[in-house]
Amino acid sequence: MDKTSQTSSLKTIGAILVLLLIATACKQARKVADSIIQPTPRELYARQFENDSSLFNPWENAYKNSLMDSIQIELPYAERGIFFTKNRDVYSYNLLLQRGEVLHAKVRTDSLSPPIFIDLYEQTSDTLSTYIFTARSENGQGSLKKAVEKSAIYKVIVQPGIGTTTHFQLELYSTPSYSFPVTGKNTEAIQSFWGADRAGGRRSHKGVDIFADRGTPVIAVTEGRVSSTGERGLGGKQVWLKSSLMGNSLYYAHLDSILVKTGKRVQIGDTLGLIGNTGNARTTAPHLHFGIYEGYRGAIDPLPFIRINTKPIMSAGQVSFEFPKITVSAKKANLRQAPSVQGEKVGEAEKNDTLSILGITKKWAHIKTEMGGKAYVHLSLIDLYPNENP
Ligand SMILES: [Zn+2]
Description:
Number of domains: 3
Strand content: 35-45%
Number of helices: 4
Helix content: 10-25%
CATH class of the largest domain: Mainly Beta
CATH architecture of the largest domain: Sandwich
Number of strands: 27
Largest sheet: 10 strands, antiparallel
Bound molecules: zinc ion
Shape: globular
CATH topology of the largest domain: Jelly Rolls
């Protein structure tokens, strides 16, 4: 072997070694980075397509663009539609959630468990990063549950895995973090809410009043420990329960009698006392004043923690793979930000315009315009199955 070829083969070996080292280092670096940043199931899934930019890039861009969608919905919400490979659509919804609510997002499909990713972001007032990542579904199983710690606008993003084509049903709704504090009663028994005037407007109501017959049991809404009991001040006979779940202090006031001792550990549903009108409720009908106190913040609105919300009702309409485009049948059709006539108008379509259909919610079609904008249009203004008509 002459000197030049020896040098060049050494160089080759050297280059291979360097490449191997880089590859190992990359894997190591990624492992270290993963343990710090903790990639989402969606990010982990996407890695298998990283080297196939024709598949990966449109999918990734669709996700990024969906952060700018401005679809607004109210809970409960149900939508029936199709994930269509060719559209590479991402479904993105803005909604208001209050501290104390537990958000549930569920996607069901009719095919054998394709990966479905659901991410939750919180809107901030920061103009540079408008949304901060808050929660995600586990392992692409199309199901997310998150107790909300802050009242804010949130964004739910639903994205099927690359190449998924299937019918789907989406449900978004919320449940309260705690159970209801009075046996046999529900939200309808609340007759005075957070913030109502007290003492002629000199102070405001720091809880909710739940009316029931004298002697009705008031119960632990969560497991915890009785931190204090006694008869004093405006609240009269009262029980304070320290919640194990969130560390909040729960205040039960105006009781006729107290049936627990300080220090007792209780489970959900255990009786703490009986409804009465002690303290400054002497002149009113028996009721429970229920309050929630959060360490440094003080009293917070207890309603979202106990309010029982309705479940979504799936719409009857169906989207067909044969008709992924719909046509406008009315002379003009308003495109709206929300599935309601109160929804802000974001555009207009004219007779025979075609729109891609993403799903149906009640009497509204969730659509995408040629420009890629998402909106709702009322079903009475469109033809869902355009080719069927002669
Ligand atoms: Zn009250």
